[in-house]
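Predict structure. Chain length: 223.
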Amino acid sequence: MFNDLSSTLALLRTRRSGRPRDLVEPGPSAAQLREILEIAARTPDHGKLHPWRFVHVPRARRGAFAALLQGAYRADTPEPGRLEIEANERFAHQAPELIVALSSPTPGIKIPVWEQELSCGAACMNLTLATHAAGFAAGWVTGWAAYSPHVLSAFGAPPERIAGFIFLGTPGIELEERPRPDFERSFPSGPATERYNNPLDLAGVLVQHHAYERRSPRLSPPP
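Prediction complete.
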């Protein structure tokens, strides 16, 4: 069973995205969508900068979104093929709801842009989890449009970047499992020489870590 709502841990353990093209009605109501976005904002955010933005593209504006995609695609591919045109059209109209997520960092401050980008990713993950917890499914995708300056110009401007298109709705087909990381490969155990491929033993690694902390009293703890 995917997206098991019997408990928080059950949902996290069984979380499964929905393919945007397979998401159908019903989607979240206006009140549910607002709650999902409010939950998305409760994310680690060093400096309280909220370095991300969410733009809702409602059904009524999907035609304009499709026109934006077609124009942006033609800017780089003046003579697109029929299949490419149809793919862009399908992308714009799939799923009941669409949220465009933007990384919106503030450069030149003490909080590194990298940390701000991580906060954006965490906000996107919160959004998808909140969608699943509300009884729907979300699909977070990118593709060429996420890296198109023409598409970005419709939603923001540099240094902002499109973090993804998050589609929301109800799975129209049964969800299927996908390959997951092998636990032993992701969380290896054993001597430090095997894990880090260097001559230090684990104690040496810990000593170096603590020494670095002592040299860096201003080092901020993780959010």
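Summary: Confidence is low (pLDDT under 50) at residues 199-223.
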